Amino acid sequence: MAPTQTGTGTGRKVSEARERLLRTAGQLFYAEGIHTVGVDRLVAESKVTNATFYRHFRSKEELAVAYIAGVDQAIQAQIDSLKAAQLPPDGILRGIGASLVEQIRSPGYRGCAFLNAAAEFPDPDHPVHRAVVRHRAWFLQTITELFAEITEAQAEHAGQHFVMLRDGAMSAGYLGDPVLAGETLLRGIDGLLRIHATRGQEPHASSAPDPAPSPAAPISDIACSPPSA
To answer: pLDDT tens digits, residue range 37-46?
Structure first.
């Protein structure tokens, strides 16, 4: 999650308090659930006062929206940095998959923060649910655009397939064997990329050997969960 901008004097203290609240909320919400964690505990573990809490957030649900938005912004910034490095699209896609595998296998993994939040707030009109939907819409669009750079033919279907592979792996990694879930995700992404690369080719080119895959781009903390302390 990106650091909060801070100023001088009182403004700096206020910003640092808000950052502590967001960091503490992210860790507790992800580990235990948003509904489970109360304001009193958030205040105590963030080492702020009730007045400071409500100066920044009108309610716990508003803090939850900020928590989801923070994870979303971090992921957007990380993928944008890879695009700026002019890595090939298949390398970015493989790198996202490799980073998800690392997350799935990490200690304290509790599934996808976005899916968990949506399950806690099923009402589509709730601000937390809407924040999750906004992130997923952006993620799907981003993945689809990467597939379209390889070939525009059925890029939308490939993007949807990738997101479903990701969702399934993150759930299976939490509920089942994380190693198997990660391996299955990588095989699925590899197969999807190989199939997609052949779309749009001329019929006479169908017998041509598949292009060598780009290596997985190293991506730091592409995660649907908050960073650890």
So the answer is: 999 999 999 9
